[in-house]
Amino acid sequence: PTDYVFLRLRTRLLADANGVRQKLVDFAVESRYFPRDRGADVGRSWGSLFYDLRLQLVSWFSTRVRAEQDVNGGGLVTLDVSGTLRPWDGLELIGAYRERPGIARAVSWGVSWQLTPAWQVTLEQQYDFLADEFLYHRGRLIRSFHRFAVELRGKYDPQQDDVSVSVGVSLAPLFSSRQDPFRDDPSRGLYD
C-alpha cells in the first residue's frame, strides 16, 4: 500500500438571496504528498494539484473551472471550463471547453428547454479542434406524467459511426415540473 498525506483547501462564500441561502463562490485545491520513497524513478513527491472553482454570482449565470496540474514538471494535465446561461425560466444554454494537452481540445454546446411542465427537450454537440471532427451529437425528450416520466434518448458518435437510441421510464414521483427524473440515474454513465 502507498502511504500519502491528503491535503485539501476549500473556501465558500455564501449569501442569502430572497430568504434562500446560495453559494456564490466555491473554491477547492487538493493534492497528495507521498512522504516515503516510491522508487528511484519517482522518489518522494507531490501528486497532481486539482483545482475546482464554481461561481454563481447571479441567478441566471453560473460557471465552473476544473483543472489538474502536474507539479513535478509535467504542466497542465486537464482543463475543463463550463458555463450555463439561464435567460428565462425553463431555458438553459450550456457551453464548455475541455483541454487535454496533446490529446484533445474540444468545445461543446447545448440547450435544454422545458417547453411545458410536461415536456422537456435537450440537444448537445461536442467538437474537437485537434481531431477536426465532432465527437458526439445527443438529444433527449422527456415527457412527465403525474407519477412517472418517459425519456427518449438518442446519440450519434461519428468516430465509431454508432447510433444509439434508448427509452427510459422513471417511476419516482416528481416534486416539481422542473425536476429531471433521470438526473440521478445510477446506470446513466453506462450508456453515455
Molecular structure report:
The chain has 192 residues and is mostly beta strands. Helix content is 2%, strand content 65%. It is built from one helix and twelve strands, in the order E-E-E-E-E-E-E-E-E-E-E-E-H. A hairpin with a 4-residue loop joins strand 5 (61-70) and strand 6. The protein is globular. The protein starts with a strand and ends with a helix. The relative contact order is 0.09.
Helix and strand run: EEEEEEEEEEEEH
**Could you report the average pLDDT, rounded to the nearest whole number?**
85
Q: Count of helices? A: 1
Structural class: mainly beta
User: Rg, please?
Assistant: 21 Å
Q: Helix proportion of residues, in percent? A: under 10%
- The amount of beta strand, in percent, is over 45%
- Taking pLDDT < 50 over at least 5 consecutive residues as the criterion, the unreliable ranges are 186-192
The coarse overall form would be globular
Distance between the termini: 33 Å
Number of strands: 12
Tell me about the biggest sheet?
12 strands, antiparallel
Question: Could you write a compact summary of the structure shown?
Answer:
With 192 residues, this protein is mainly beta. It has one helix at residues 188-191, and strands at 5-17, 20-34, 45-46, 49-58, 61-70, 75-88, 91-100, 104-114, 119-128, 133-144, 149-157, 162-170. The model is unreliable at 186-192 (pLDDT under 50).
